[in-house]
Automatic annotation (TrEMBL):
InterPro entries: Glyco_trans_2-like (IPR001173), Nucleotide-diphossugar_trans (IPR029044). Keywords: Glycosyltransferase, Membrane, Transferase, Transmembrane, Transmembrane helix. It comes from Sphingobium vermicomposti. This is Cellulose synthase/poly-beta-1,6-N-acetylglucosamine synthase-like glycosyltransferase. It holds the Pfam family Glycos_transf_2.
Length: 377
């Protein structure tokens, strides 16, 4: 085998390893790391404020309000605040309708979730700030179990566990559910060995004293949760703090959502970069493995596919053309199918493409500050 062929093989192998790193090699390494147990102490539980932002979530509000009412009955002292980001439907009216249940803060128009959460955090009085989403429902004992973890004074933030509903409704939903189950297990392992490297917005909390300042262009959940790590406190995950959310079933909705999240994630990375460099080596390794490598998964697919195509062409042009045609046929089938293995594989590639597009968009200076709820949820 000539030198150029060896180079192509190396590129293909490295692309495969990089693509599999966050989901296979990284979890294996985490399992080899020792436990870092929490050290709870006796004392009263902290007071808390529950915060969420909403935009045109009228369809989800009746169930959300019922969930909040059940939580409030169990925790009468829990402060609950909501930010309405200029909804054009009945979202704000539905939130404000039950008297003395939720403190509603109305935005001036479309200003985005990060802006809204900053407004709520500035107004909240609880010692612990609990963040969730407008379409997320919390289990009855979620608040109890979450606040119990703050018995350890070294714990500065606690993540919950997100359970998705509607897995079998489409290939997009099935892939999303599989991805999230892997993500939850990674967070469990990260928590067991020290710090989780970042939260999502479904359910997480921090001590109010650690809440940082940040621009509206970043992901507020990642920025706020990472402030715990930067402060030298522990960011842990609680398996018994359960939130439930319906999966996005439409491929277009999921694509746009991933582009938006990836763009904001890259802006967040740039904003946090000076502090990221000062983290402990193990936390830098975790962050790079679960965040940065994954953001460029689409690029690894492209380089691996290019190397494989050139190798195939050098072996046999007919083989290369036949493989390319077969690949295009399978992609076309997968894009048209509503379910099945081929559709699921295509959805995985689509997710990588959306993430890469979002990162490139952010690298070019584009920002995304507002969001729209997925119609297919």
């Amino acid at each position: 085998m000539r030198g150029f062929d060896l180079f192509l093989c190396a590129v293909l192998l490295l692309s495969i390893v990089a693509l599999l790193w966050p989901f296979f090699f990284y979890p294996l390494i985490l399992r080899l790391l020792p436990d870092d147990p929490e050290q709870p102490e006796q004392g009263p539980r902290p007071t808390a404020s529950l915060l969420f932002c909403a935009y045109n979530e009228a369809a989800a509000m009746p169930e959300k309000i019922a969930n909040i009412e059940a939580i409030k009955q169990r925790h009468p002292q829990l402060e609950i605040l909501a930010f309405d980001d200029g909804s054009s439907d009945d979202t704000a009216a539905l939130i404000a309708r039950p008297p003395d249940l939720v403190t509603l803060v109305r935005g001036p128009g479309r200003s985005g979730k990060a802006h809204g959460m900053k407004r709520l955090a500035a107004q909240a009085t609880g010692e612990v700030l609990i963040f969730t989403d407008a379409n997320v429902l919390l289990d009855a004992d979620a608040i109890d179990n979450l606040l119990a973890r703050y018995a350890d004074p070294d714990v500065g933030g606690v993540l919950g566990s997100l359970h998705y509903v509607g897995e079998g409704e489409s290939a997009t939903a099935s892939v999303g559910s599989l991805y999230w189950r892997i993500e939850e297990r990674l967070k469990d392992e990260e928590s067991r060995t020290g710090n989780v490297l970042g939260a999502d917005g479904s359910i997480f909390s921090i001590r109010r004293a650690l809440y940082p300042e940040f621009p509206d262009s970043v992901l507020d959940d990642l920025t706020v949760s990472m402030a715990v790590v930067f402060a030298g406190k522990r960011l842990v995950k609680a398996k018994d703090v359960i939130a439930r959310e319906r999966l996005v079933t439409g491929r277009g909705d999921e694509y746009r959502r991933k582009v938006r999240i990836a763009a904001r994630a890259w802006h967040t990375h740039i904003h946090l970069r000076p502090q990221l460099r000062r983290m402990a080596a193990i936390d830098r390794f975790k962050y790079a493995s679960r965040k940065i490598v994954r953001w460029f998964g689409g690029l690894f697919i492209l380089t691996g596919a290019f190397a494989a195509a050139v190798l195939a062409f050098r072996i046999s042009p007919v083989l290369a053309v036949g493989g390319a045609v077969l690949g295009l046929i399978l992609i076309a089938i997968g894009l048209r199918a509503k379910g099945g293995l081929i559709a699921a594989v295509v959805d995985i590639f689509v997710a990588y493409a959306a993430t890469l597009q979002g990162v490139i968009k952010a690298m070019r200076g584009r920002t995304v500050t507002i969001w729209n709820p997925a119609k297919s949820r």
